[in-house]
Amino acid sequence: MSKNQSATPSDPVSAPFIHLNDVSLRYGESGEGVEALKRLSLNISRGEFTAVVGPSGCGKSTLMRLLSGLTPCSSGKVCIDGKQVNQPLKTVGMAFQNSALLPWRTALENVLLPLEVVEPYRRDFRRDKARFVERARALLARVGLSGAEDLYGWELSGGMQQRVSLCRALVHEPEILLLDEPFGALDAFTREELWDILQQLWLDRGFTAMLVTHDLPEAVYLADSVHVISERPGYVVHTSHIDLPRPRTPELCFTTQFTDYVHELRTHIQRKTLAVGGAGL
Ligand SMILES: Nc1ncnc2c1ncn2[C@@H]1O[C@H](COP(=O)(O)OP(=O)(O)OP(=O)(O)O)[C@@H](O)[C@H]1O
């Protein structure tokens, strides 16, 4: 679905696409263990780009695992498209700070991986392989990696590896893309290039995205709404709705409107969590 098309709400009475209601999650036994999230509630519309920021250890990655269905909540409810999440979801793509490319596979073979393991693609992989290869090549071309299809991970720069990782997360056309600090290990210039690539993929494809980041300008540049999570156990303490035109361009980062959003978010995150002199957390 392109951003130009109107979204199809999961429920005619505009139920949110992703709905977390009073969700708590404790790792380990009650009384012991770690309470990662406490009574967290959050609604996300279909096709929305959401960012999540907050101090280290506040439960951001845990929130991602809840949405992917990889980890169940201890109490409360996680619903996607009106259905309670109680098992790993096929409709989710994920990318992490570590691109985690399989070293014995080329870029193209890494991108093809989800089609080899996720149903219904897996069933038809042999029959449809030529079509899938074409799809993976087109996606690699879309992120500027034409000609790099046959290179192995160790032959790619960090930015190229993350592009491959994005392609791998999107090749099975998931409805939801979960991004856990995907650009955290990249230099500033490469990171900004990747912002634009991600923004363009999202504008083209219309998936619902959630980005966990420590970089407030990154959150403002990419997201429609940015949620600030409290210190652990995490819950949403503040949400900024980012009313900036799209497509967003690097010049936007120098406008007062942009820096005001960054400062607004910064004031809602405890000072001790902020990097000295930096924009990150
Ligand atoms: N599998 C686990 N078992 C026990 N405790 C865990 C587990 N995973 C995470 N935790 C704990 O839960 C809390 C939240 O962790 P989580 O990784 O979600 O935080 P985060 O906000 O993503 O952190 P960071 O910003 O540093 O990546 C932390 O105290 C962490 O140590």
Characterize this entry briefly.
The protein contains seven helices and ten strands. With 281 residues, the protein is of the alpha/beta class. It has two domains: 12-91 and 177-183 and 208-281, Rossmann fold (3-Layer(aba) Sandwich), CATH 3.40.50.300; 92-174, Rossmann fold, CATH 3.40.50.
Describe this structure in words.
One of its GO terms (molecular function) is ATP binding. Belongs to the ABC transporter superfamily. This protein is of the alpha/beta class. The protein has two domains: 161 residues, Rossmann fold (3-Layer(aba) Sandwich), CATH 3.40.50; 83 residues, Rossmann fold (3-Layer(aba) Sandwich). Helix content is 31%, strand content 21%. The protein has a six-stranded mixed beta sheet with strand order 6-7-8-3-9-10, sandwiched between helices. Strands 2-1-4-5 form a four-stranded antiparallel beta sheet, covered by helices on one side. Helix 2 crosses helix 3, helix 2 runs parallel beside helix 4 and helix 4 packs parallel to helix 5. It binds adenosine-5'-triphosphate. Adenosine-5'-triphosphate binds next to strand 2 and helix 1.
What order do the helices and strands come in, and which of them pair?
Elements: E1 18-27, E2 34-44, E3 49-53, H1 60-68, E4 75-80, E5 83-84, E6 92-96, H2 107-117, H3 125-142, H4 158-170, E7 176-180, H5 188-205, E8 208-212, H6 216-222, E9 225-229, E10 236-241, H7 256-267
Parallel strand pairs: 3-8, 3-9, 6-7, 7-8
Antiparallel strand pairs: 1-2, 1-4, 4-5, 9-10
Protein name: ABC transporter ATP-binding protein
Pfam families: ABC_tran
InterPro entries: AAA+_ATPase (IPR003593), ABC_transporter-like_ATP-bd (IPR003439), ABC_transporter-like_CS (IPR017871), ABC_transporter_ATP-bind (IPR050166), P-loop_NTPase (IPR027417)
